[in-house]
Write a structure and sequence with these properties.
Layout (H helix, E strand, L loop, with lengths): L7 H16 L3 E5 L12 H4 L8 E10 L2 E11 L10 E4 L3 H11 L7
Antiparallel strand pairs: 1-2, 2-3, 3-4
Helix pairs in contact: 1-3
Amino acid sequence: MTGTAGTVGEAFYATKLVRNIISRGLYISIDNGEEEPTDPSRVEGTILPCLGATEIEMLRFYRRDAGGLHHAGSFCLVWGNCPSGEELVCDHTDNRLCESIWGEVFGRETACA
């Protein structure tokens, strides 16, 4: 995480989130609203340094098939909500994939639990 935003707890959950998405064979792009979004990648060392540059970022992920990359879901990250990092994700795409990732990363079935 390169930005000034972020605590040890937030870095823990951000890393866990990125690793979980990559482990599913998905590609990640970071959009911080100020710079061009990063190119979709499956390389943790490319993705993690892009996080924390602004207070709010969109982590988007994609599936690849013969037709190219297709949006599979998004997590909205808000840095500085809670030092423990448990509130890093403030919203996500409402689909089974995102719910599954959420449950594995945060140990809860849904964001509303």
